[in-house]
Amino acid sequence: MAIPSPVEPCDFTVFGGTGDLALRKLLPALYLRDRDGQLPDGFRVIGVSRHTADDDAYRAMVRDALTQHVSSADLDEAAVARLLARLHHVELDVEDVGAWHLLHARLKEGAASEDVIRVFYLAVAPGLFGTICEHLDEVGLATERSRVVLEKPMGSDLATARRVNEAVGRVFEESNIFRIDHYLGKESVQNLLVTRFANTFLEPLWNSHWVDHVQITAAESLGVGERGSYYDRSGALRDMVQNHLLQLLCLVAMEPPTYVDRETVRDEKLKVLQALRPMTPELVDRDVVAGQYAAGLCDGAPAKAYVDEVGQPSDTETFVALRTEVQNWRWAGVPFYLRTGKRLPERVSEIVVVFKEPPHAMFPHSEGPTEPNRLHIRVQPDEGMRLHMTAKEPGPGGIRLRPVSLDLSYAAAFGARSPDAYERLLMDVVRGNPTLFMRRDEVEAAWAWVAPILDRWSQPTHRPRRYPAGTNGPVAAATLLERDGRSWQETE
Fold first, then answer.
1. What is the residue range of 329's domain?
2. Given 244, 360, 365, 388, which residue is catalytic?
3. Rounded to an integer, what distance in angstroms lies between the CA atom of residue 360 and that of residue 368?
4. Alpha-carbon distance 317 to 234, whole Å?
5. Which residue in 29, 73, 140, 381 has the most C-beta neighbors within 10 A?
6. Is the pTM of this model over 0.70?
7. Count of domains in the chain?
8. 319-332: per-residue pLDDT in tens?
9. 343 three-state secondary structure
10. Per the record, what are the reactions this protein catalyses (predicted)?
11. What is the CATH number of the domain that holds 269?
12. Is residue 182 part of an annotated ligand binding site?
Protein backbone atom coordinates (compact mmCIF):
# COMPACT_ATOMS: atom_id res chain seq x y z
CA MET A 1 0.00 0.00 0.00
CA ALA A 2 1.35 3.42 -0.94
CA ILE A 3 2.13 5.67 2.02
CA PRO A 4 0.62 9.16 1.66
CA SER A 5 3.05 12.01 1.39
CA PRO A 6 3.99 13.52 4.77
CA VAL A 7 2.79 16.91 5.89
CA GLU A 8 4.87 19.89 6.97
CA PRO A 9 6.03 20.24 10.58
CA CYS A 10 3.23 21.71 12.65
CA ASP A 11 2.24 22.74 16.15
CA PHE A 12 -1.16 21.09 16.58
CA THR A 13 -2.94 22.59 19.60
CA VAL A 14 -6.14 21.06 20.93
CA PHE A 15 -8.25 23.24 23.22
CA GLY A 16 -10.20 20.76 25.32
CA GLY A 17 -7.20 18.43 25.12
CA THR A 18 -8.39 16.24 28.03
CA GLY A 19 -11.99 16.08 26.83
CA ASP A 20 -13.89 13.17 25.33
CA LEU A 21 -13.49 14.23 21.69
CA ALA A 22 -9.73 14.71 22.00
CA LEU A 23 -9.11 11.41 23.79
CA ARG A 24 -11.61 9.33 21.82
CA LYS A 25 -11.11 10.68 18.29
CA LEU A 26 -8.48 13.37 17.73
CA LEU A 27 -5.44 11.89 19.45
CA PRO A 28 -6.11 8.33 18.18
CA ALA A 29 -6.38 9.81 14.67
CA LEU A 30 -3.04 11.59 15.05
CA TYR A 31 -1.50 8.38 16.41
CA LEU A 32 -2.64 6.39 13.36
CA ARG A 33 -1.30 9.03 10.99
CA ASP A 34 2.00 8.98 12.88
CA ARG A 35 2.10 5.19 12.75
CA ASP A 36 1.66 5.35 8.97
CA GLY A 37 4.52 7.80 8.58
CA GLN A 38 2.62 11.01 7.95
CA LEU A 39 3.78 13.11 10.90
CA PRO A 40 7.30 14.47 10.32
CA ASP A 41 9.96 15.35 12.84
CA GLY A 42 9.05 18.64 14.44
CA PHE A 43 5.30 17.88 14.53
CA ARG A 44 4.16 18.75 18.08
CA VAL A 45 0.80 18.16 19.76
CA ILE A 46 -0.19 20.49 22.62
CA GLY A 47 -3.23 19.71 24.72
CA VAL A 48 -4.78 22.74 26.43
CA SER A 49 -7.23 22.32 29.30
CA ARG A 50 -7.98 23.38 32.87
CA HIS A 51 -6.85 19.95 34.01
CA THR A 52 -3.88 19.99 36.38
CA ALA A 53 -1.33 17.81 34.62
CA ASP A 54 2.28 18.07 33.55
CA ASP A 55 3.55 16.52 30.30
CA ASP A 56 4.16 13.10 31.87
CA ALA A 57 0.67 12.92 33.40
CA TYR A 58 -0.89 13.98 30.11
CA ARG A 59 1.08 11.36 28.21
CA ALA A 60 -0.12 8.69 30.63
CA MET A 61 -3.71 9.85 30.09
CA VAL A 62 -3.31 9.67 26.30
CA ARG A 63 -1.66 6.25 26.47
CA ASP A 64 -4.71 4.94 28.32
CA ALA A 65 -6.99 6.56 25.71
CA LEU A 66 -5.11 4.91 22.84
CA THR A 67 -5.45 1.53 24.55
CA GLN A 68 -9.22 2.06 24.82
CA HIS A 69 -9.98 3.63 21.46
CA VAL A 70 -7.50 2.05 19.03
CA SER A 71 -7.85 -1.62 18.13
CA SER A 72 -5.12 -3.85 19.53
CA ALA A 73 -4.18 -4.85 15.98
CA ASP A 74 -3.32 -1.22 15.19
CA LEU A 75 -1.30 -0.55 18.35
CA ASP A 76 2.44 -0.49 17.86
CA GLU A 77 4.56 0.30 20.89
CA ALA A 78 7.20 2.16 18.91
CA ALA A 79 4.54 4.30 17.24
CA VAL A 80 2.79 4.94 20.58
CA ALA A 81 6.08 6.05 22.12
CA ARG A 82 6.75 8.30 19.13
CA LEU A 83 3.40 10.07 19.49
CA LEU A 84 3.73 10.39 23.27
CA ALA A 85 7.08 12.10 22.80
CA ARG A 86 5.34 14.74 20.69
CA LEU A 87 2.77 15.50 23.41
CA HIS A 88 2.73 18.44 25.78
CA HIS A 89 0.08 19.85 28.10
CA VAL A 90 -0.66 23.44 29.05
CA GLU A 91 -2.99 24.13 31.98
CA LEU A 92 -5.04 27.14 30.93
CA ASP A 93 -8.41 28.69 31.69
CA VAL A 94 -9.06 30.32 28.32
CA GLU A 95 -11.10 33.08 29.97
CA ASP A 96 -8.16 34.08 32.20
CA VAL A 97 -6.41 36.78 30.18
CA GLY A 98 -3.36 36.73 32.41
CA ALA A 99 -2.62 33.04 31.79
CA TRP A 100 -2.28 33.07 28.01
CA HIS A 101 1.44 33.74 28.21
CA LEU A 102 1.81 30.07 29.26
CA LEU A 103 0.57 28.84 25.88
CA HIS A 104 2.54 31.50 24.04
CA ALA A 105 5.75 30.45 25.80
CA ARG A 106 5.18 26.73 25.15
CA LEU A 107 4.57 27.26 21.43
CA LYS A 108 7.60 29.52 21.06
CA GLU A 109 9.75 27.09 23.03
CA GLY A 110 11.50 24.74 20.63
CA ALA A 111 9.55 25.94 17.58
CA ALA A 112 11.26 25.03 14.33
CA SER A 113 10.72 28.55 13.03
CA GLU A 114 8.55 31.59 13.52
CA ASP A 115 6.43 30.76 10.47
CA VAL A 116 5.69 27.16 11.48
CA ILE A 117 2.15 25.98 10.66
CA ARG A 118 -0.03 26.26 13.75
CA VAL A 119 -3.38 24.48 13.97
CA PHE A 120 -5.76 25.40 16.79
CA TYR A 121 -8.51 22.81 17.19
CA LEU A 122 -11.39 24.17 19.30
CA ALA A 123 -12.90 21.06 20.87
CA VAL A 124 -14.80 23.25 23.34
CA ALA A 125 -18.23 24.87 23.63
CA PRO A 126 -19.03 27.27 20.75
CA GLY A 127 -19.47 30.09 23.25
CA LEU A 128 -15.69 30.03 23.75
CA PHE A 129 -14.74 30.15 20.05
CA GLY A 130 -14.64 33.95 19.88
CA THR A 131 -12.84 34.31 23.21
CA ILE A 132 -10.10 31.86 22.22
CA CYS A 133 -9.56 33.44 18.81
CA GLU A 134 -9.39 36.93 20.33
CA HIS A 135 -6.71 35.86 22.83
CA LEU A 136 -4.75 34.00 20.14
CA ASP A 137 -4.64 37.29 18.25
CA GLU A 138 -3.63 39.28 21.32
CA VAL A 139 -0.60 37.08 22.05
CA GLY A 140 0.50 37.02 18.40
CA LEU A 141 -0.37 33.39 17.61
CA ALA A 142 -2.99 34.10 14.92
CA THR A 143 -0.75 34.52 11.87
CA GLU A 144 -1.16 33.87 8.16
CA ARG A 145 0.21 30.37 8.79
CA SER A 146 -2.29 29.66 11.57
CA ARG A 147 -5.49 27.68 11.09
CA VAL A 148 -8.45 27.27 13.39
CA VAL A 149 -10.76 24.25 13.42
CA LEU A 150 -14.33 24.66 14.66
CA GLU A 151 -16.13 21.60 15.96
CA LYS A 152 -19.91 21.45 15.79
CA PRO A 153 -22.33 22.68 16.93
CA MET A 154 -21.66 25.97 15.15
CA GLY A 155 -24.41 27.86 16.91
CA SER A 156 -27.89 26.73 17.80
CA ASP A 157 -29.72 28.76 15.15
CA LEU A 158 -28.99 31.25 12.37
CA ALA A 159 -28.42 34.20 14.72
CA THR A 160 -25.97 32.37 16.99
CA ALA A 161 -24.17 30.83 14.00
CA ARG A 162 -23.63 34.30 12.59
CA ARG A 163 -22.29 35.54 15.91
CA VAL A 164 -19.82 32.66 16.07
CA ASN A 165 -18.74 33.21 12.46
CA GLU A 166 -18.32 36.94 13.00
CA ALA A 167 -16.29 36.47 16.19
CA VAL A 168 -13.91 33.99 14.58
CA GLY A 169 -13.84 35.96 11.31
CA ARG A 170 -12.58 39.07 13.09
CA VAL A 171 -9.32 37.21 13.74
CA PHE A 172 -8.93 34.59 11.01
CA GLU A 173 -9.40 34.85 7.26
CA GLU A 174 -12.09 32.55 5.87
CA SER A 175 -9.40 30.52 4.07
CA ASN A 176 -7.87 29.66 7.47
CA ILE A 177 -11.15 28.63 9.15
CA PHE A 178 -11.98 24.91 8.97
CA ARG A 179 -15.52 23.99 10.10
CA ILE A 180 -15.43 20.26 10.53
CA ASP A 181 -18.18 17.77 9.71
CA HIS A 182 -16.71 14.32 10.21
CA TYR A 183 -19.26 12.77 7.83
CA LEU A 184 -17.48 14.48 4.95
CA GLY A 185 -14.27 12.65 5.81
CA LYS A 186 -15.79 9.19 5.47
CA GLU A 187 -14.48 7.12 2.59
CA SER A 188 -17.90 6.35 1.14
CA VAL A 189 -18.93 10.01 1.15
CA GLN A 190 -15.85 11.04 -0.79
CA ASN A 191 -16.27 8.07 -3.08
CA LEU A 192 -19.73 9.36 -3.94
CA LEU A 193 -18.10 12.19 -5.86
CA VAL A 194 -15.82 9.76 -7.68
CA THR A 195 -18.72 7.40 -8.44
CA ARG A 196 -20.74 10.24 -9.94
CA PHE A 197 -18.07 12.15 -11.81
CA ALA A 198 -15.39 9.59 -12.74
CA ASN A 199 -17.84 7.11 -14.31
CA THR A 200 -19.96 7.81 -17.36
CA PHE A 201 -22.84 5.39 -16.85
CA LEU A 202 -24.51 7.07 -13.85
CA GLU A 203 -24.46 10.77 -14.62
CA PRO A 204 -26.96 10.59 -17.55
CA LEU A 205 -29.41 8.89 -15.15
CA TRP A 206 -28.78 11.26 -12.23
CA ASN A 207 -31.80 13.53 -12.71
CA SER A 208 -35.58 13.76 -12.50
CA HIS A 209 -36.08 11.82 -15.74
CA TRP A 210 -34.80 8.59 -14.20
CA VAL A 211 -34.63 9.05 -10.41
CA ASP A 212 -37.88 8.48 -8.56
CA HIS A 213 -36.69 9.66 -5.13
CA VAL A 214 -33.72 9.73 -2.76
CA GLN A 215 -33.57 8.55 0.86
CA ILE A 216 -30.86 9.53 3.34
CA THR A 217 -30.81 7.80 6.72
CA ALA A 218 -28.54 8.21 9.74
CA ALA A 219 -29.74 5.82 12.43
CA GLU A 220 -28.27 5.06 15.83
CA SER A 221 -29.15 2.19 18.13
CA LEU A 222 -27.78 3.92 21.23
CA GLY A 223 -29.60 6.47 23.36
CA VAL A 224 -28.17 9.78 24.50
CA GLY A 225 -26.03 8.21 27.22
CA GLU A 226 -23.69 10.74 28.85
CA ARG A 227 -24.56 13.40 26.27
CA GLY A 228 -27.99 13.96 27.80
CA SER A 229 -27.38 17.51 29.03
CA TYR A 230 -26.03 18.63 25.64
CA TYR A 231 -28.56 16.69 23.61
CA ASP A 232 -31.55 18.04 25.50
CA ARG A 233 -30.54 21.55 24.42
CA SER A 234 -29.93 20.43 20.85
CA GLY A 235 -32.16 17.62 19.58
CA ALA A 236 -31.90 15.61 16.40
CA LEU A 237 -32.66 18.49 14.04
CA ARG A 238 -29.71 20.59 15.21
CA ASP A 239 -27.44 17.65 15.99
CA MET A 240 -27.84 15.74 12.72
CA VAL A 241 -30.10 17.27 10.09
CA GLN A 242 -28.71 20.81 9.89
CA ASN A 243 -25.20 19.53 9.25
CA HIS A 244 -24.65 15.84 8.46
CA LEU A 245 -27.80 15.03 6.50
CA LEU A 246 -27.92 18.28 4.56
CA GLN A 247 -24.26 17.83 3.63
CA LEU A 248 -25.00 14.35 2.27
CA LEU A 249 -27.98 15.72 0.36
CA CYS A 250 -25.71 18.37 -1.18
CA LEU A 251 -23.21 15.78 -2.40
CA VAL A 252 -25.98 13.71 -3.96
CA ALA A 253 -27.72 16.64 -5.65
CA MET A 254 -24.87 19.02 -6.58
CA GLU A 255 -23.98 19.80 -10.17
CA PRO A 256 -20.62 18.59 -11.51
CA PRO A 257 -17.96 21.19 -10.72
CA THR A 258 -15.51 22.12 -13.47
CA TYR A 259 -12.95 20.17 -11.42
CA VAL A 260 -12.69 19.10 -7.78
CA ASP A 261 -10.79 21.84 -6.01
CA ARG A 262 -10.71 23.89 -2.82
CA GLU A 263 -13.78 26.02 -3.59
CA THR A 264 -15.53 24.45 -6.58
CA VAL A 265 -17.20 21.66 -4.59
CA ARG A 266 -18.29 24.08 -1.87
CA ASP A 267 -19.70 26.47 -4.50
CA GLU A 268 -21.91 23.68 -5.88
CA LYS A 269 -23.05 22.52 -2.44
CA LEU A 270 -24.13 26.06 -1.59
CA LYS A 271 -26.29 26.17 -4.72
CA VAL A 272 -28.13 23.04 -3.54
CA LEU A 273 -28.84 24.55 -0.12
CA GLN A 274 -30.14 27.70 -1.77
CA ALA A 275 -32.39 25.61 -4.03
CA LEU A 276 -34.09 23.64 -1.24
CA ARG A 277 -37.83 24.25 -1.14
CA PRO A 278 -38.49 26.79 1.65
CA MET A 279 -40.27 25.38 4.67
CA THR A 280 -43.52 27.21 5.41
CA PRO A 281 -45.46 26.49 8.63
CA GLU A 282 -47.92 24.39 6.58
CA LEU A 283 -45.09 22.33 5.06
CA VAL A 284 -43.49 21.82 8.46
CA ASP A 285 -46.75 20.39 9.78
CA ARG A 286 -47.19 18.17 6.73
CA ASP A 287 -43.66 17.13 5.75
CA VAL A 288 -41.65 17.01 8.99
CA VAL A 289 -42.06 14.39 11.72
CA ALA A 290 -40.51 14.74 15.18
CA GLY A 291 -40.27 11.76 17.51
CA GLN A 292 -38.91 10.84 20.93
CA TYR A 293 -38.08 7.32 22.07
CA ALA A 294 -40.06 5.74 24.87
CA ALA A 295 -39.07 2.63 26.80
CA GLY A 296 -38.60 -0.48 24.70
CA LEU A 297 -36.21 -3.29 23.77
CA CYS A 298 -32.84 -2.80 22.03
CA ASP A 299 -30.80 -5.85 21.11
CA GLY A 300 -33.05 -7.90 23.36
CA ALA A 301 -32.37 -5.77 26.45
CA PRO A 302 -34.71 -3.27 28.12
CA ALA A 303 -34.01 0.35 27.15
CA LYS A 304 -35.10 3.39 29.12
CA ALA A 305 -37.25 6.16 27.72
CA TYR A 306 -35.45 9.37 26.74
CA VAL A 307 -37.02 11.35 29.58
CA ASP A 308 -35.74 8.77 32.06
CA GLU A 309 -32.22 9.00 30.64
CA VAL A 310 -32.11 12.79 30.91
CA GLY A 311 -33.93 12.70 34.25
CA GLN A 312 -36.59 15.31 33.50
CA PRO A 313 -39.69 15.93 31.35
CA SER A 314 -38.66 17.01 27.87
CA ASP A 315 -40.09 17.74 24.41
CA THR A 316 -36.69 17.41 22.72
CA GLU A 317 -36.87 15.31 19.56
CA THR A 318 -34.63 12.25 19.23
CA PHE A 319 -35.98 11.43 15.76
CA VAL A 320 -36.65 13.52 12.65
CA ALA A 321 -38.01 12.48 9.26
CA LEU A 322 -38.73 15.02 6.56
CA ARG A 323 -39.55 15.42 2.90
CA THR A 324 -38.04 18.16 0.78
CA GLU A 325 -37.23 18.97 -2.84
CA VAL A 326 -34.34 20.61 -4.67
CA GLN A 327 -36.02 23.16 -6.87
CA ASN A 328 -33.76 23.29 -9.89
CA TRP A 329 -33.70 21.95 -13.45
CA ARG A 330 -32.04 18.62 -12.60
CA TRP A 331 -34.19 17.62 -9.64
CA ALA A 332 -37.58 19.27 -10.20
CA GLY A 333 -40.30 17.12 -8.64
CA VAL A 334 -37.96 14.52 -7.08
CA PRO A 335 -38.60 14.06 -3.33
CA PHE A 336 -35.64 13.80 -0.96
CA TYR A 337 -36.53 12.00 2.26
CA LEU A 338 -34.23 12.50 5.26
CA ARG A 339 -34.37 10.48 8.45
CA THR A 340 -32.31 10.31 11.63
CA GLY A 341 -32.95 9.01 15.11
CA LYS A 342 -31.67 7.41 18.27
CA ARG A 343 -32.71 4.05 19.73
CA LEU A 344 -33.51 2.65 16.30
CA PRO A 345 -32.98 -1.05 15.50
CA GLU A 346 -29.37 -0.65 14.35
CA ARG A 347 -26.59 1.84 13.68
CA VAL A 348 -26.47 2.59 9.98
CA SER A 349 -26.00 5.61 7.73
CA GLU A 350 -26.99 5.14 4.11
CA ILE A 351 -27.98 6.98 0.95
CA VAL A 352 -30.47 5.20 -1.31
CA VAL A 353 -31.14 6.47 -4.82
CA VAL A 354 -34.33 4.81 -6.12
CA PHE A 355 -34.73 4.86 -9.88
CA LYS A 356 -37.99 4.87 -11.80
CA GLU A 357 -39.64 1.78 -13.22
CA PRO A 358 -38.90 0.97 -16.88
CA PRO A 359 -41.23 3.00 -19.11
CA HIS A 360 -42.58 -0.12 -20.84
CA ALA A 361 -43.24 -3.68 -19.57
CA MET A 362 -41.23 -5.84 -21.96
CA PHE A 363 -41.94 -9.18 -20.26
CA PRO A 364 -45.73 -9.37 -19.72
CA HIS A 365 -45.78 -13.13 -19.14
CA SER A 366 -42.78 -13.34 -16.85
CA GLU A 367 -42.86 -14.74 -13.34
CA GLY A 368 -41.31 -13.36 -10.20
CA PRO A 369 -41.18 -9.95 -8.51
CA THR A 370 -39.84 -6.81 -10.11
CA GLU A 371 -38.38 -3.95 -8.12
CA PRO A 372 -37.07 -0.52 -9.10
CA ASN A 373 -33.32 -0.30 -9.51
CA ARG A 374 -31.68 1.12 -6.39
CA LEU A 375 -28.22 2.32 -5.56
CA HIS A 376 -27.38 1.92 -1.87
CA ILE A 377 -24.37 3.89 -0.65
CA ARG A 378 -23.39 2.70 2.82
CA VAL A 379 -21.69 5.45 4.83
CA GLN A 380 -21.32 3.43 8.04
CA PRO A 381 -20.66 0.78 9.13
CA ASP A 382 -19.14 -1.54 6.47
CA GLU A 383 -18.64 1.21 3.91
CA GLY A 384 -19.53 0.26 0.37
CA MET A 385 -22.13 0.30 -2.40
CA ARG A 386 -24.82 -2.04 -3.66
CA LEU A 387 -26.64 -1.70 -6.98
CA HIS A 388 -29.96 -3.57 -7.06
CA MET A 389 -31.01 -4.84 -10.48
CA THR A 390 -33.47 -7.31 -11.99
CA ALA A 391 -32.09 -10.43 -13.69
CA LYS A 392 -33.45 -13.60 -15.27
CA GLU A 393 -33.23 -16.62 -13.02
CA PRO A 394 -31.28 -19.39 -14.79
CA GLY A 395 -33.33 -22.30 -16.17
CA PRO A 396 -35.33 -23.47 -19.21
CA GLY A 397 -38.87 -22.52 -20.01
CA GLY A 398 -40.37 -19.12 -19.30
CA ILE A 399 -38.72 -16.02 -17.95
CA ARG A 400 -38.50 -15.88 -14.18
CA LEU A 401 -37.39 -12.49 -12.86
CA ARG A 402 -35.32 -12.17 -9.73
CA PRO A 403 -33.87 -9.14 -7.90
CA VAL A 404 -30.07 -9.38 -7.58
CA SER A 405 -27.35 -7.00 -6.46
CA LEU A 406 -23.87 -5.96 -7.46
CA ASP A 407 -21.88 -5.37 -4.28
CA LEU A 408 -18.81 -3.30 -3.56
CA SER A 409 -17.31 -3.61 -0.10
CA TYR A 410 -14.39 -1.23 0.34
CA ALA A 411 -12.72 -3.55 2.85
CA ALA A 412 -12.98 -6.56 0.51
CA ALA A 413 -12.15 -4.68 -2.70
CA PHE A 414 -9.11 -2.78 -1.48
CA GLY A 415 -7.90 -5.05 1.32
CA ALA A 416 -6.80 -2.22 3.57
CA ARG A 417 -8.02 -0.51 6.70
CA SER A 418 -10.24 2.45 5.84
CA PRO A 419 -8.88 5.47 7.73
CA ASP A 420 -11.20 7.13 10.20
CA ALA A 421 -12.75 10.36 8.98
CA TYR A 422 -10.78 12.42 11.50
CA GLU A 423 -7.49 10.98 10.24
CA ARG A 424 -8.13 12.40 6.79
CA LEU A 425 -9.64 15.68 7.92
CA LEU A 426 -6.89 16.55 10.40
CA MET A 427 -4.24 16.07 7.72
CA ASP A 428 -6.28 18.19 5.30
CA VAL A 429 -6.22 21.01 7.88
CA VAL A 430 -2.44 20.81 8.17
CA ARG A 431 -2.14 20.80 4.38
CA GLY A 432 -4.52 23.76 4.16
CA ASN A 433 -7.05 21.92 1.97
CA PRO A 434 -10.61 23.11 2.82
CA THR A 435 -12.51 21.02 0.23
CA LEU A 436 -14.15 18.72 2.80
CA PHE A 437 -14.97 21.49 5.28
CA MET A 438 -17.99 23.78 5.46
CA ARG A 439 -17.70 27.38 4.38
CA ARG A 440 -19.40 30.16 6.30
CA ASP A 441 -22.08 30.72 3.67
CA GLU A 442 -22.87 26.97 3.64
CA VAL A 443 -23.36 26.88 7.41
CA GLU A 444 -25.59 29.93 7.41
CA ALA A 445 -27.63 28.69 4.41
CA ALA A 446 -28.29 25.41 6.23
CA TRP A 447 -29.37 27.22 9.38
CA ALA A 448 -31.61 29.52 7.32
CA TRP A 449 -33.34 26.50 5.81
CA VAL A 450 -34.06 24.76 9.14
CA ALA A 451 -35.07 28.03 10.87
CA PRO A 452 -38.80 27.74 9.97
CA ILE A 453 -38.85 24.20 11.43
CA LEU A 454 -37.29 25.42 14.68
CA ASP A 455 -39.73 28.33 14.79
CA ARG A 456 -42.73 26.05 14.29
CA TRP A 457 -41.50 23.59 16.92
CA SER A 458 -41.02 26.40 19.43
CA GLN A 459 -44.80 26.74 19.69
CA PRO A 460 -46.28 25.45 23.00
CA THR A 461 -48.51 23.00 21.11
CA HIS A 462 -45.57 21.11 19.59
CA ARG A 463 -45.02 17.62 20.97
CA PRO A 464 -42.77 14.95 19.44
CA ARG A 465 -44.50 11.63 18.73
CA ARG A 466 -43.40 8.77 20.95
CA TYR A 467 -41.93 5.56 19.53
CA PRO A 468 -40.74 2.47 21.41
CA ALA A 469 -36.96 2.13 21.65
CA GLY A 470 -35.74 -0.47 19.17
CA THR A 471 -38.29 0.38 16.47
CA ASN A 472 -37.99 2.41 13.26
CA GLY A 473 -39.48 5.58 14.68
CA PRO A 474 -43.01 7.00 14.84
CA VAL A 475 -45.71 5.60 12.57
CA ALA A 476 -46.03 9.08 11.06
CA ALA A 477 -42.55 8.67 9.53
CA ALA A 478 -43.79 5.71 7.49
CA THR A 479 -46.94 7.62 6.56
CA LEU A 480 -44.77 10.44 5.24
CA LEU A 481 -43.70 8.15 2.38
CA GLU A 482 -46.83 6.04 2.12
CA ARG A 483 -48.94 8.99 1.07
CA ASP A 484 -46.56 9.33 -1.91
CA GLY A 485 -46.86 5.61 -2.69
CA ARG A 486 -43.37 4.87 -1.37
CA SER A 487 -41.74 3.24 1.65
CA TRP A 488 -38.47 3.47 3.55
CA GLN A 489 -35.73 1.15 2.29
CA GLU A 490 -34.79 -0.66 5.45
CA THR A 491 -31.37 -2.26 5.85
CA GLU A 492 -31.10 -5.69 4.29
1. 184-416+441-482
2. 244
3. 17
4. 9
5. 29
6. yes
7. 2
8. 999 999 999 999 99
9. coil
10. D-glucose 6-phosphate + NADP(+) = 6-phospho-D-glucono-1,5-lactone + NADPH + H(+)
11. 3.30.360.10
12. yes
